[in-house]
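Q: C-alpha cells for this one, please.
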Amino acid sequence: MWDRLSGLLPNYLILLCTVLSFLIPYVIYKVNQKLHQFGDPPWKHKR
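A: Here is the predicted structure, written as C-alpha cells:
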C-alpha cells in the first residue's frame, strides 16, 4: 500500500510532509510554553 502512495506523491511533497509532521507539534509546544509563562498566576510558577 505504501508503495502505491509513495509512487503517486512527488519526492519534495513527501519531504515537506515529513518536516511539517515534526515542525507543527514543536511550534504548538513552544507557543503553549510561552502562554503558560505569561498567563499562569504567580503561585503556579516554579521558583
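A few notes: Residues 5 and 14 are 10 Å apart (CA to CA). Residues 2-44 form one domain.
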